[in-house]
Fold this sequence. Notes:
Elements: E1 19-23, E2 31-34, E3 45-50, E4 53-61, H1 69-73, E5 76-81, H2 84-110, E6 116-122, E7 128-134, H3 142-152, E8 155-160, H4 163-170, H5 181-184, H6 194-199, H7 206-209, H8 224-230
Amino acid sequence: MGCNGCSYKGMSTAVEDAFVGVRFREETNLTLCSTGGKIYGRGDRVIVEMEGGPTFGRVEQSPMPVFKPCQKSGARPIVREADEADTAAFDRQRQNEMQGKLYAQERSRALGLDMKISLVDFSLSGKKAAFYFTSDGRVDFRQLVRDLSARFSVRVKMVQVGARDEAGLIGGIGVCGRTLCCSSWLKDFRPISIQMAKRQNLSLNPSKISGQCGRLLCCLAYEDDQYKTRNPDSRPTPLPVIADV
């Protein structure tokens, strides 16, 4: 993740027991979490305070290195070690999410809604649920919300996302063999154009320069400035011609 400077210049960057790496669900990347002075070992189940509320996770790295002082300020606090009640709530949460996605898909088709349910996220408390979907246009999902709320007795929030955001939510492996940038560290999407691929003399085959989202690869922009410097006129360098003898 990019850094535009840090106001925590006096803080140490050494490995400390105060930070551990926690994995949530099947996420590939670990989230840096602060322990609050307690000791957690690998495999410990914990409850972490996230933006959406308390979240169940598992410690995968203890301690976890902190390379940038500014990372410390963004570490999520561990509230407590998870008990049997938390584990049972997490099992219910996963079950509700699977059932919620299937039910939402069935009801959206029955209501004739032009939408694709991408991801369902229930809170650990079971009181709130967010349904992420993609659609080419606006969708009147008021009846769907009422059906979902009645079926699961939760406060329902419908969130429409774009193709790139959907890929970031679901995650996956890119053509490079690594975890998708949008699901691991990339938060701001730059406009991507076919000219970026031309400047780099890449094949214009859509299957070669498109990501899981079906859009042009975000990584085409990573070195575009260097290619512009090499070719100020922005015209791609012609490929060598190899003649058959």
